[in-house]
Design brief:
With 254 residues, the protein is of the alpha+beta class. A hairpin with a 3-residue loop joins strand 4 and strand 5. The radius of gyration is 23 Å and the shape is elongated. GO terms for molecular function: ATP binding; phosphorelay sensor kinase activity.
Length: 254
């Protein structure tokens, strides 16, 4: 009997080691993907800055002030682009403390932070019960919703539209439905929507917002998926634990 208990304990210890290894491997893989994409993405504006500086150095003695002004404005624009990318990465990497959160309060705080950026033609409905709780890092969860709201603002654009946030209670976790009435996303783009630096917005987007959303939800032991159809809008479905110690797997998000 003692030998059996020892064998079981040894097996559990080994399983725990393998679990930690898999978690670390997944984190390293995500970090490696991010670093590779980051290096590629930063290389473009830095090359543009370098080229503009070289031309300016050659034109120091020239008289074409308007051309020099355009080059300096291009340098300024590319530096701002690099700064935005770096700020996004810093937001993603901020550590925090998890706690039980009243989601409706957190959403109202998030909207207060965004108060000057909410387009007047977009209606926002929070259909969340007052006692709807999740267990997460409040700062990271605010960043999740800041990114989702901004994503919806940009998707809806100048048209009239709605953003609706609903909550559904389950046994061990709660589900959040974040929907907008934007134009929707083509089916071919959906598998890449959480990839770093993938964007459907052309030069207007950096492709980090939803990548950060995905990883912050994972950091909080949750799961997220997207449902979208062109012409019918988009819904993000987020599952988060109600209590400490619960980890949501992808099957619970199906």
């Amino acid at each position: 009997m003692i030998l059996l208990v020892e064998a079981i304990n040894k097996m559990l210890e080994e399983l725990n080691k393998r679990k930690e290894y898999l978690i670390q491997t997944e984190r390293l893989a995500t970090f490696g993907t991010l670093l590779f994409s980051l290096a590629h993405e930063l290389n473009n504006p830095l090359n543009n800055i370098y080229t503009s500086c070289q031309i300016l150095l050659e034109e120091l003695e020239g008289e074409n002030l308007e051309f020099k002004r355009e080059l300096l404005l291009e340098i300024e624009k590319e530096i701002e682009r690099v700064q935005k990318i770096i700020r996004s990465i810093l937001d993603y990497s901020k550590p925090g403390q998890k706690e039980k959160i009243k989601l409706k309060n957190l959403l109202n705080e998030t909207l207060y932070l965004l108060r000057g950026k909410i387009p007047p033609q977009i209606e926002i409905n929070l259909e969340i019960p007052e006692d709807f709780m999740v267990f997460a890092d409040p700062q990271q969860l605010k960043q999740v919703f800041i990114n989702l709201f901004k994503n919806s603002f940009e998707a809806i654009g100048e048209s009239k539209g709605k953003i609706i946030v609903k909550g559904l209670e389950n046994k061990d976790y709660n589900t959040i439905y974040f929907s907008d009435t934007g134009p929707g996303i083509p089916a071919k783009d959906l598998p890449h929507i959480f990839d770093p630096f993938f964007t459907t917005k052309g030069n207007k987007g950096y492709g980090l917002g939803l990548f950060i959303v995905y990883n912050l939800i994972k950091n909080n032991q949750g799961s997220i998926k997207i449902e979208s159809e062109v012409g019918k809008g988009t819904t993000f479905i987020i599952n988060l634990p109600k209590e400490e110690g619960k980890v949501i797997n992808d099957r619970e998000n199906s």
